[in-house]
Amino acid sequence: MSLIQLSKNQSLHAALLLPVTNSVGAHLRRHFSSTETDTRTLTIETSVPYTGHKLEPPSRSVETTQKELLTFFREMSLMRRMEIAADSLYKAKLIRGFCHLYDGQEAVAVGMEAAITKKDNVITAYRDHCIYLARGGTLVGAFAELMGRRDGCSKGKGGSMHFYKKDSGFYGGHGIVGAQTPLGCGLAFAQKYLKEEHVTFTLYGDGAANQGQLFEALNMAALWDLPVILVCENNHYGMGTAEWRAAKSPAYYKRGDYVPGLKVDGMDVLAVKQACKFAKEHVLKNGPIILEMDTYRYHGHSMSDPGSTYRTRDEISGIRQERDPIERVRKLILSHDFATEKELKDTEKEVRKEVDDAIAQAKESPMPDPSELFTNVFVKGLGADAFGVDRKEIRTVLP
Amino acid sequence: MASDVTRRIGIVGGTAWRWRGARRMSTSTSTSTSSAAKTKSSSGSTKKEVNLFTAINQALHIALDTDPRAYVFGEDVSFGGVFRCTIGLAERFGKNRVFNTPLCEQGIVGFAIGLAAMGNRAISEIQFADYIYPAFDQIVNEAAKFRYRSGNQFNCGGLTIRAPYGAVGHGGHYHSQSPEAFFCHVPGVKVVIPRGPQQAKGLLLSCIRDPNPTLFFEPKSLYRLAVEEVPENDYMLPLSLAEVIREGRDITLVGWGAQLSAMEEACKEAEKDGISCELIDLRTLLPWDKETVEASVKKTGRLLVSHEAPVTGGFGAEIAASVAERCFLRLEAPVARICGLDTPFPLVFEPFYLPNKNKILDAIKSTVKSSRSCVFARQQNIWLALMHPFCPHKQKQPVTGLIESGRPDSGPTVQPAPSADHPVQQ
Ligand SMILES: Cc1ncc(C[n+]2csc(CCOP(=O)(O)OP(=O)(O)O)c2C)c(N)n1
Ligand SMILES: [Mg+2]
Q1: Structural domains in chain A plus CATH codes
Q2: Residue A131's closest CA among A241, A30, A36, A231?
Q3: Would you list the domain boundaries of chain B?
Q4: CA A239 to centroid of ligand 2, rounded, Å
């Protein structure tokens, strides 16, 4: 969607007084693309200081702009809305398979993306919807994939756990916990070889941090000075197991031993941005680093987990009240008078509509052709025929 | 059937042979739970209708209760596990014997092998069979060969690995796989798959108490779905002993686990067409009961094997090959394999992938009909028939639900053995 440019003399105030247009999303973008103040930098202190392991942490002062904050607000709200919608679609049985939601952790995806380019790689586990969106994926691509439709980002063949976006270096969602971590090293090795100064962000959870593969990956990465950032998204639970029950040391940023680490408030999008920028520079010069993102998932582990048996409701609501990544940005915007409460509410309404429209569009998308069952197993199709429950003949077209 | 179960209690130490004859005679024509309900246990033990996860839970309670050296552990097991199989165990037996592990399958199994090597019963859970692969090395290289390579000084016979396997309707790539065939290629481990609650309890207790490392794959789709009367007491069912769960004359069907219910339905449908099917639950896949299968195929002259795992290299291939070796002259039709397709387990295409009732039924019909219609086969045997120029088998194998062929219209692909006359193509 292109930005709507306003004439120069039209003041921000006047623009805001205009009736809300039908053009979705135009409102907010118009708002910040039209003023001179929107790109003026300001410095904001991170919520808590960084803690370093074998490195000097970056400064707590993060530069940002009005535009950036409004973008962050919008993007995180969009992600949250998408996940909540996915929850309902799952309950309506329109989404099948296993589905893991990211709400609560949005600042990690958004902050990371703000610090890197689409030439950098990102690889993650199955909690991948929002990373895909951050990497430039579309809502329709996401919802269609969730519902197993042809227009999904993996042609409907992957589902919730397997979103990919090759053109922006998103190596996607992986189902086996921890398995993506050595893959990230391979990606980074290839990047190093190309000497193009790009890096790979390899995401894994606190549960995955106990898999042996991570330590194999860390050793290789350090041994060969690979430009890989190992991002531990510490949401404090691996399914129903609290970190302290599963890990002798839940200080994940230190667990690389000889690999330097940084502990980051993963609920503070600006802190994440700064840390990822720092990490990218670091790995290009010195080899791998661990970023531990202290974050939280509001939903249960997956759709079959109510998420309330192994933690208290107070814990969840406490985090929502005190650390919510969207609320933090909302407060920043309001305190700097970058937008009014109503404008932010309007943004949320727009986002809602965008999501609803995308769902409607995704629902229109047909199921993949049954012959797709046999494609992509090998380069050439398998050349097999089968029929389904209804005994209708399905023929494949051989490549 | 149920009387058999109760009769077997406590005498599992006896050889499998002793029970085979008795079991066959007492086996009625179906797996139905009603036969269990009707039979009163001679030992006076009570029975209750329970589902599969409860039956497994009972077995674990008994295992821990009867052996102070038994331990249960795995990801989230002290909370009951994702399928509730371990519910109540930690409360009852304490966190020193029932505990959560970190998320590290290779570590879990390696740890279990060590624990078992000290003479304990290490009952470990892998949350889904799909996640057993990180532990593959430990199972194949450590567990299976420990006894052999140490000249019987060490073993990990107390090791049991439980893992839920199979399709659930919408599990997708990593919550649906059936990896049993990988492990059937590993001398030194036993592979056991129960078909329902009653079987699960007895077989699991046998696995736990068996002096060899065992893999116990549980049909996860049946955890809640399958409800059956299960004796409340401690009983074991013999390993490496198949069970004829439906007797028939025209064709033998061999399967295991959840697949048996699709096969049973197909048998019932086939009966309406006058085809009498014999259905065998293999129960233990390694080492498997060739004799029961052989005896059945010799009687019926036909075999169909069915499993959810992909057809190529599946355990059905092993059964087909063994039957070809042992019953070749008695076979009246080629062995039919109705299995999962040779694709990753799909998310949206599950109904196409699965070897469902219709696919099995069609294969039963075509296997039986093609050989019935073949006068040559009826009069002599398939081997002589095949040599006759007019035998229909000569040109075509019976068409089953799944046609596997590189070229759709060219009939079945036959790979000739390489020889000077027939160099391997491509
Ligand atoms: C090898 C393997 N074992 C177990 C699982 C089942 N499983 C899926 S997610 C998960 C918990 C992972 O927790 P964590 O790494 O903290 O990631 P989070 O879900 O919190 O994002 C488990 C045990 C799996 N997918 N793969
Ligand atoms: Mg976690």
Answers
A1: 8-368 (3.40.50.970)
A2: A231
A3: 46-231, 243-370, 375-421
A4: 7
pLDDT digits (tens, 9 = 90+) for A151-198: 999 999 999 999 999 999 999 999 999 999 999 999 999 999 999 999
pLDDT band per the 50, 70, 90 thresholds, residue A389: low
Q: What is the percent of chain A with per-residue pLDDT over 90, rounded to a whole number? A: 82
Same topology for domains B46-231 and B243-370, yes or no?
Answer: yes
> Which atom from ligand 1 is nearest to the alpha carbon of A179?
1
Interface of A with B in 130-189 (CB under 8 A): 148, 156-159, 161-162, 175-179
Amino acid A305 reads D
What is the C-alpha separation between A290 and A310, in angstroms, rounded?
28
Probe site for chain A from B133, B175, B347 (most A CB atoms < 10 A): B347
Q: Which of B78, B98, B103, B105 to mutate to test the interface with A (most CBs of A within 10 A)?
A: B103
Q: Which token pair is B238?
A: 């013999």
Band (B44; pLDDT cuts 50, 70, 90) = low
Length of chain A (residues)? 399
Ligand 1 pocket by Cβ (under 6 Å) = A 127, 175-177, 205-208, 235, 237-239, 301; B 75, 103, 105, 127, 131, 134
Q: b or e along A141-155 (b: 16 or more beta carbons within 10 Å of the residue's beta carbon)?
A: bbbbbbbbbbbbbbb
Instruction: Quote the pLDDT of residue A99.
Output: 97
- Neighboring chain B residues of A398 at a CB cutoff of 8 Å: 406-408
Distance CA A182, CA A215 (A): 9
User: Residue A317 corresponds to which tokens in the numbers above?
Assistant: 């609501």
**Chain B contact present for A397, CB below 8 A:** no
**How far does Cα B41 stand from its chain's mean position?**
27
Radius of gyration of chain A (CA): 22
DSSP tally for chain B: helices H, then strands E: 19, 15
ipTM of the complex: 0.85
pTM, 2 dp? 0.84
Please check the confidence at residue A210 and state whether its pLDDT lies above 70.
Answer: yes
Residue B30 burial (CB < 10 Å; 0-12/13-18/19+)?
middle
Ligand 1, atom 17, lies closest to the CA of: A205
pLDDT at A76 over 50: yes
SS3 A291: strand
Mean pLDDT in chain B? 83
CA distance B114 to A71: 54
pLDDT at B109: 98
Instruction: Return the percentage of chain B with pLDDT > 90, whole number.
Output: 74
pLDDT, mean of residues A61-71:
97
Topology (CATH level 3) of domain B46-231: Rossmann fold (3.40.50)
| Closest chain A residue to B362, measured at CA | A391
From the candidate CATH numbers 3.40.50.920, 3.40.50.10090, 3.30.450.30, 3.40.50.300, the one assigned to the domain spanning B243-370: 3.40.50.920
- pLDDT confidence band for B421 (50 / 70 / 90): very low
Question: How do strand B70-74 and strand B98-100 relate by DSSP bridges?
Answer: parallel
Residues of A within 8 A of B102 (CB-CB) are 207, 210, 241, 246-247
Question: pLDDT band for position A388 (50/70/90)?
Answer: low
Indicate whether A340 pLDDT > 90.
yes
For A275-284, letters b (16+ CB in 10 Å) and e give bbbbbbebbe
pLDDT for B121-131, tens place per residue? 999 999 999 99
Atom nearest to B134 CA in ligand 1: 1
* Radius of gyration from C-alpha coordinates of chain B: 22
Q: Which residues contact A161 (CB under 8 A, 6 or more apart)?
A: A97, A98, A99, A100, A126, A128, A173, A174, A175, B172, B173, B174
Distance in angstroms (rounded) separating the CA atoms of residues B368 and B136: 40
